[in-house]
Write a structure and sequence with these properties.
The structure holds 2 protein chains of 2 kinds.
Chain A lengths: L8 E5 L4 E6 L7 E8 L6 E6 L4 E2 L4 E4 L5 E6 L8 E9 L13 E6 L1
Parallel strand pairs in A: 1-9
Antiparallel strand pairs in A: 2-7, 3-4, 3-8, 5-6, 6-7, 8-9
Chain B lengths: L4 E3 L2 E4 L5 E6 L6 E8 L3 E9 L2 E5 L6 E5 L5 E5 L8 E8 L15 E2 L3 E5 L1
Parallel strand pairs in B: 2-11
Antiparallel strand pairs in B: 1-3, 3-8, 4-5, 4-9, 5-6, 7-8, 9-10, 9-11
Classes of the chains: A mainly beta, B mainly beta.
Chain lengths: ~110, ~120
């Protein structure tokens, strides 16, 4: 799977939007962009995924650059519960294995 | 609640011992994955089973083995334990996507809360 690059840490004020960036300059045409997060003392949690178009769900939005070499996870109103490590992961849709390769992720701190 | 159940939550044992970690996937999920999370290595994929058969292997040591039973629950067996095996072990499950990707490629994985293994 292609690699991703994320900032080690970010801070946000509570109730403000958060934009978490991810660079994936070697992405292939068959790679999906997945985001997971891991809250303290819990297992990772699926957030969202997309291929080319922007995606929205109840947790977040995913904005994908036109050249697909970068993407941004958007939390519209950060809450204290959103404090977690966020992982951006590329998944090749041709792969039959579906295992996830986690990098170091971005640790999001939400300030009350 | 992800629907994935892992037992036990905590396990403390000594070097050289053998332990078994258990995972019950979400209802209807055919794929089970095992991951190890340690402080120095981060989250690493160990092994995947799909409907009872091994599907993919990651950085799994030869001292470790796993299996998935007919009822789809899975067990991860760790033997000849060393201090470095102390870690959080997570199980995840996912649905199949279809006949072209029977292992469920790109289906979200749902993780349990993990088993914390401490080797003394």
């Amino acid at each position: 799977d292609a690699k991703t690059t994320q900032p080690n840490s970010m801070e946000s004020n509570e109730e403000e939007p958060v934009h978490l960036p991810c660079n994936h300059s070697t992405i292939s045409g068959t790679d999906y962009i997945h985001w997971y997060r891991q809250l303290p003392s819990q297992g990772p949690e699926y957030v969202i995924h997309g291929l080319t178009s922007n995606v929205n769900n109840r947790m977040a939005s995913l904005a994908i650059a036109e050249d697909r070499k970068s993407s941004t996870l958007i939390l519209h109103r950060a809450t204290l519960r959103d404090a977690a490590v966020y992982y951006c992961i590329l998944r090749d849709r041709r792969s039959g294995a579906n295992n996830l390769f986690f990098g170091t992720g971005t640790r999001l701190t939400v300030i009350p | 609640d992800s629907g994935v159940t892992q037992t036990p939550k905590h396990l403390i044992t000594a070097t050289g011992q053998r332990v078994t970690l258990r995972c019950s996937p979400r209802s209807g999920d055919l794929s089970v994955y095992w991951y190890q999370q340690s402080l120095d290595q981060g989250l690493q994929f160990l092994i995947q089973y799909y409907n009872g058969e091994e599907r993919a292997k990651g950085n799994i040591l030869e001292r470790f083995s796993a299996q998935q039973f007919p009822d789809l629950h899975s067990e991860l067996n760790l033997s000849s334990l060393e201090l470095g095996d102390s870690a959080l072990y997570f199980c995840a499950s996912s649905k199949k996507e279809g006949q072209l990707n029977p292992a469920g490629s790109n289906q979200p994985q749902h993780f349990g809360d993990g088993t914390r293994l401490s080797i003394l």
